[in-house]
Amino acid sequence: MFTGIIESIGSIRSLTPKGGDVRVYVETGKLDLGDVKLGDSIAVNGVCLTAVELPGDGFWADVSRETLDCTAFADFKVGSRVNLEKALTPSSRLGGHLVSGHVDGVGEVISRSDNARAIQFRLRAPAELAKYIAHKGSITVDGTSLTVNQVDGAEFELTIVPHTLAETIMADYRTGRRVNLEVDLLARYLERLLLGDKAAEPGKGGITESFLAANGYLKS
């Protein structure tokens, strides 16, 4: 588990194809690796990776075919800057929100504009994630815990203050950039809980408007 509070900006130093997937070397910048052991988890742009080698100034990890297919990891090149966060410990401050490091989908930056000293971003999420994104709710973008300011269908807006711009890679974002999205854990579990006993039935993957109406959640 993670908090979505970025601890360091790192960079991709090596991408080595390995039998259909990839081994990556991430240089970790100011991230303190003193308490990191082999097998520990580190979030890289919101993707939970396992450290398999620790040469000193970074770590090696294996990136599965599933991760390459379901995240923006395939867009990385040697030299790409990345957000980094070590896994949550029992004594950590939960400054953001609970983040699993399991990306739900890939979104796209569709606009960027100045808003006083902040930057206003508008992003488009995959249609199937729109129901989990709420006004003033939490969302994780490339591993960063953020508050949603406006929602319009599958599009949502974020206001990014100077500190976040300086401490994450969001200052690099331009129109068309693909980003990793993880929706709020509570929203996903709530959807499953609302299904009740029907969750055990095949094909009951999520809540639909017809389900809500049939079970008294919508007024006729």
From TrEMBL:
Pathway: Cofactor biosynthesis; riboflavin biosynthesis; riboflavin from 2-hydroxy-3-oxobutyl phosphate and 5-amino-6-(D-ribitylamino)uracil: step 2/2. GO terms for biological process: riboflavin biosynthetic process. Lumazine-binding repeats lie at residues 1-97, 98-194. Transmembrane segments: none annotated. Keywords: Repeat, Riboflavin biosynthesis, Transferase. Catalyzes the dismutation of two molecules of 6,7-dimethyl-8-ribityllumazine, resulting in the formation of riboflavin and 5-amino-6-(D-ribitylamino)uracil. NCBIfam families: PRK09289.1, PRK13020.1, ribE. Homotrimer. This is Riboflavin synthase. It comes from Pseudomonas putida. The lineage of its organism: Bacteria, Pseudomonadati, Pseudomonadota, Gammaproteobacteria, Pseudomonadales.
